Amino acid sequence: MRVATLQQNQHQETPVVTPSPCREILRDILHRPEMAVWVLLIFGFVWLAYQPITSNAQTILVTSFLGVLLLIMWNMKRVEQAPTALARFFLLLAIALAAFISFRYFSWRINYTISYHDIFSFVGALLLLGAELYALAIYLLGAFVNVWPIHRTPPPLPTDPAKLPTVDIIIPSYNEDPALLELTLLAATQVDYPRERLKVYLCDDGGTVQRRENPKLSKQAWQRHLELKALCERVGAIYVTREKNEHAKAGNINAALKDHCSGDLVLVLDADHIPTVDILRNTVGFFLRDPKLFLVQTPHYFINPDPLERNLRTYELMPSENEMFYNVIQHGLDFWNASFFCGSAALLRRSCLDEIGGIAGDTITEDAETAMTLHGRGYNSVYYGKPMIAGLQPETFSGFIVQRTRWAQGMVQIFLMKNPWTQPKMRITQRLAYTSSVFFWFFPFARIIFFLAPALYLLFSLKIVDAFLPADLLAYALPHVIGAIVLSNILYGHTRWPFISELYETIQSVHALPAIVNVLKSPRAPSFAVTPKGERLEEDFISRLAMPFYVMLIFNVVLLIAGVIRLHVVPEDLGIILLTMALAAVNLIYALAAIGIMLEKSQKRSAYRIPTQWVDIPATLRVGEEQLPVHVVDISHTGARLRAHKGLPLTEAVTLNVAVPAWGGITVTIPSRLVRRHDTTDGKWELGVLFQPETLADKRAIVALVYGDSDLHETNQRQRQQRIGLAEGFAFLMRTAFKHATENFRFLTRIFVRHLRVRAHRLFAPLISKKPAV
């Protein structure tokens, strides 16, 4: 084993002598003529947008620009299928037109709607303007990041195995169920790569010496230690642990790198991220082509819905929330050489990690911090967009908030402690890209201000926006809002439906804001919180985090009532009243949708099903000597749902003969039991089989069948990626909000009635049971 150069202290980095970041930025602009040209064009563009014109000219201008934007949006399928140069022209045109409309709005907004009336009104006006400027910055940074997305093809690998780099697969674990770890280990140990050049490590932080010697944790830690050690021996992996639980996930990985691993490349997988067989075949080649490459990041693909998708029943209807990041934004970041490490499903060059002391650990988002540090040293990254892991999302809203709060705190830590504008050797475009990724996580401040802003006028009569006519709304404010929504739909429409981003931000903001404030007060205070995965919900219940959203609903109802009163009392303020009431009405809809999410739906399945009806998997069900052809509808590691032309008795043991696409179509035999059957309206039969593996080879075949095929993940993901229009998106949001909020209220009513019955029984039962004296 080669001697690891990982330093003892993960926070101590190799000193680097570099010019100051400001000098690097200036050099980048001066030595790249195209960059200087772009800077001049942008300043000229902004100057042109701020020139005064008449109201009629403004109306004609923005109407024509919006018309072009809408035409591009309605023809996005054609644009995406057009030659690359033409497609990029329309994308650049859409960004330019939408940005121009927004600049026109802010020119009017700053010059005509802000003035001093009193200190409270002025502070409120500046807060609202600040929130809008923040939204504009994120909007423009997002457009910049995604102006030129690239999609890569894996380079071929050499046919001689000796020319391939050695790879260590590292699976850090803390408290995950051994059954879940077994799936990941089985998949990792059968990744398509020469056996002699591949090692798989399970890095167990739940069975450390520190935990085994803790009287309160000893029994559980020893049991986990012995169980996982035996599991690794059984499947062909290497079990490692360490002395102490220090620096969370980063410390766990670094301990394995220092004491055990020796590979040229390191594939990091979360404990619940089950890899496909081709994950190394599709990623290793990038490192052979570029000696300065430190990272190949791949998407995180999830086989279960997040709490919003599960509780609103949208998982099979619309794209998942993470798809916008992994299917669009990362491709855009990749163009700017700014795609960053996302903690899992990523291949890293070991020598680069050694150079900075291993995985960074100054913040609780060690992945992005590590990437930015290495980008700051002049190394390159690549994003390959094919989903090659199957993972789990948090099942409950509280688990979701734990995860997102950690991300928000970590990114704010990076902004404060390792700001991209202080990193050496970064190009200005990389700094802008990282700024977009980090600065986004301040959204709770803007979202809360937008929520409270209508109240400042409707309840407290603060003049946060100078009174103006409805015509001003139509000429400036409305085109800005529509242009931003249309551009978002053009850039992300196939992975994020209109108005859904705002819903995700709403449900996170209330709980993430206090955590971010704590980071601003004490940047080093946050600690790493493990995201709960694999939870089973035995019954429906209201989330313990629901109360703020009931308050939000009541608050906005009060605001709308106050707005109606003001329409009668001060009709001369029609413009500002309509604006604030419209904001309150939108906030009300989001509050209703959030309340619908707070009713946690039961989830009793031990394994999530993966749809297979979109692909052809040859299979037969064998009963005795009979072979019954079947179509595989969906599948999990515990069983499958099949369709056949006839039914079978439930008592019979069966054998499923099925081709495994990940193994090139090789047919395997899986011992099973028929547990469910029913006839369908088209004359077919639907059969449910429970897998009953008898050997380790059976388990390997099941894992390869269910999780080994990246084409299946890609096909399932593509099925939900469809665009819808703005009106359709808003109607979907309203329909979903009212429907599921009503479910929530009905559930609360049932609980309240049940509570009243119990109280009445306790109160009157003693009186009823007393017998009259004889």
From TrEMBL:
GO terms for molecular function: cellulose synthase (UDP-forming) activity; cyclic-di-GMP binding. Its main location: membrane. It comes from the Bacteria. The chain crosses the membrane at residues 33-50, 56-74, 86-107, 119-142, 432-453, 473-492, 549-569, 575-599. Residues 265-462 form the Glycosyltransferase 2-like domain. This is Cellulose synthase catalytic subunit [UDP-forming]. It comes from Rehaibacterium terrae. NCBIfam families: CelA. It is an enzyme of class 2 (transferase). Pathway: Glycan metabolism; bacterial cellulose biosynthesis. The keyword Secreted does not apply. GO terms for cellular component: plasma membrane. It is a multi-pass membrane protein. The keyword Cell inner membrane applies.
